[in-house]
Amino acid sequence: MDIEGIGAVVTGGGSGLGEATARDLAARGAKVAIFDFNLEAAERIARDIGGLAVRADVSDERMVGEGFDAFAEWHGSAPRILINCAGIGTAARIVNREGELSIESFRRTLAVNLTGSFICLATAARAMQALEPLGADNERGVIINTSSVAWQDGQIGQAAYSASKGGIASMTLPAARELARAGIRVMAIAPGMFDTAMVEGLPREAQESIAATIPFPSRFGDPEDYASLAAEIIRNPMLNGTVIRLDGAVRLPPK
Description:
By secondary structure, the protein is an alpha/beta fold. The protein has ten helices and seven strands. It has a seven-stranded parallel beta sheet with strand order 3-2-1-4-5-6-7, sandwiched between helices. The termini are far apart. The model has no long low-confidence stretch (mean pLDDT 94).
């Protein structure tokens, strides 16, 4: 799909992977809306790229629906691209040293990361189905969700996070199969260790130690690396129904 001139929604677009993706899509000519719980951050990016800022909790179906309505009014039609980068990174043992359970943390992590991705996917798919098909393949849209290498390499303390990202990975193929009839592709990217806010909070020594475990290149991924892959997925019509690890060949240790 040609990105020039088409509409795109990027959730979690106010920072990190989402910000880089929103900027990249806009540079390629897309009309981009940034959905983010932090409206101030979304507005900052929107000003830079001539986009639309929408405050949205992706786990709230009403807010997501209103955001897509706002996009259609702003752009004149539904988006043809949805990239789900919104999510939370949580760490909690199943049973901590005091014997307390992490059930509420588990519920919240799945609500934002997994259910939130599904809500945005479903809302986008409904809107995309009404669009006119494009090109020889009669394509209507592309949806990219963000999983994580923790889907397969979950560490101690990542039971909730890994479950949420594993759910995203697992729904990729059935969603792609179902939405194929409408000409909508569904993909997932599973990033490894990337230079985002979660990494920036670590001491420099810890960052260097973690980066050294990445076979090649031995560095954290740049958010632009994610954005570049997202653009290639949009461009290449044969990329559908699968999860791509973007990780420099890293495999996470138990802790």
